[in-house]
Amino acid sequence: MIKVLRLGHRKARDARITTHVCLAARAFGASEVIISGEQDDKLIENVNDVTERWGGPFKVSYQKDWKKILKEWKGEIIHLTMYGIPIQDIIKKIKESKNEKLIIVGGPRVPGEIFKIADFNVAVTNQPHSEVSALAVFLHMFFEGKELEKEFENPKIRIIPSKEGKKIVDGGVKDDKAS
Ligand code: SAM
Q: pLDDT for 159-179, tens place per residue?
């Protein structure tokens, strides 16, 4: 079981990227995102709406006090940071234990103590990019590609993969849309 902690959400600036953190987490096999920073009920509603339509299970919640989350966390804590150990050198060790994993991604400057609290500081390349790309690559390597075949439960809407155009089943009705 993998949960994601998104630190330092800023309602005005980060609504889009934090939404994408949640969507990437859901699509690539994490079970939950906990958002810390500023409370943003609209964002949570939007993500829940995606889960409602495209299937679950997937949970998104808000918790102001990230220190409490880390204190109470029983499994490993993995902090994604460009300053960490390259993922390709450490992923095998991370996968050794079957404990739950909490993946921390930052937004603005991450508090220094996170680097100490984390069991693993992991870099997805040592180049700067984003929390969405780092999370997606981490989950892809963690699940070894099996997440690509994940079936979501009770979807109202789903895509029929197609070479051309857009084929969607919406509420049991097949709809062929041109792209
Ligand atoms: N100036 C910020 C800092 O260094 O704290 C940069 C934040 S970056 C835009 C937002 C988040 O993306 C980081 O906190 C980290 O979780 C993730 N991230 C960015 N590049 C990464 C990398 N190369 N490897 C792992 N995570 C990365």
A: 999 999 999 998 777 788 765
Ligand 1 center to residue 119 CA distance, Å? 17
Do the annotations mark residue 70 as ligand-binding?
no
Q: Residue 154 burial (CB < 10 Å; 0-12/13-18/19+)?
A: exposed
The model carries a pTM of: 0.95
Homologous superfamily of 2-153 in CATH? SPOUT methyltransferase, trefoil knot domain (3.40.1280.10)
**Domain positions in the chain:** 2-153
162 vs 159: CA distance, rounded Å: 8
**Residue pLDDT, tens place only, 31-82:** 999 999 999 999 999 999 999 999 999 999 999 999 999 999 999 999 999 9
Ligand 1 centroid from CA 57, angstroms: 27
